[in-house]
Specification:
Layout (H helix, E strand, L loop, with lengths): L9 H8 L4 E9 L6 E9 L5 E5 L11 E5 L11 E4 L8 E4 L1
Antiparallel strand pairs: 1-2, 3-4, 5-6
Length: 99
């Protein structure tokens, strides 16, 4: 038995992920003595960062309320073209905010 550790860096998988939230890893090997080929696949679910919402004042019917949204970029590069959209009861259309 032997354990082999391999590192897959963000730079390696980033061009292939796109808007997907998972990676499919495949490992294959062969037994020299028998010629038997072995293979195994693993689907890895990438974790999406959480948004944290906090009311910055009292929520009163008929009045505006400020909401703080916190998002931490886990990637080693800046995001571009990101936007947030708020939806809810009484909001006629989603309100996008470009970041």
């Amino acid at each position: 038995e032997e354990t082999v550790t391999m590192t897959v860096t963000y730079a390696e998988y980033q061009p292939h992920v796109g808007d997907q939230d998972a990676l499919k890893l495949t490992v294959a090997g062969a037994v020299q003595e028998t010629g038997q080929v072995l293979a195994k696949e693993l689907r890895v679910q990438l974790h999406t960062p959480e948004l944290t919402l906090t009311l910055l004042g009292p929520a009163v019917v008929g009045q505006e309320v400020l909401v703080q949204v916190v998002f931490q970029n886990p990637l080693p590069e800046p995001l571009s073209g990101a936007s947030l959209r708020m939806e809810g009861a009484g909001i006629a259309c989603p309100k996008p905010v470009s970041l």
